[in-house]
Specification:
By secondary structure, this protein is an all-beta fold. It has one domain: Ribosomal protein L33 (Rubrerythrin, domain 2). Helices cover 0% and strands 46% of the residues. It has a four-stranded antiparallel sheet, with no helix packed on it. Strand 1 and strand 2 form a beta hairpin. It is elongated.
C-alpha cells in the first residue's frame, strides 16, 4: 500500500491519563488542527476524549 502524505498516521491518547492509545489516519486538508475524538477507554471503562499526540 502506498504512503499518502495527505493522510498521515496519528496516535490518539486518552485524556483520562490511563496511557491507552488508538492509532488512526486523518486528513490534513479537512482537519489541519489536532484531532480529538470521544472513544471508549477500556482501562477507565468509560467513554473519554482522545486527543492527537505529536
Amino acid at each position: 500500500m502506498a504512503r499518502n502524505r495527505t493522510r498521515p498516521i496519528v496516535k490518539l491518547r486518552s485524556t483520562a491519563e490511563t496511557g491507552y492509545t488508538y492509532v488512526t489516519r486523518k486528513s490534513r486538508r479537512n482537519d489541519p488542527d489536532r484531532l480529538h475524538l470521544r472513544k471508549y477507554d477500556p482501562i477507565a471503562q468509560r467513554h473519554v476524549t482522545f486527543r492527537e499526540e505529536r
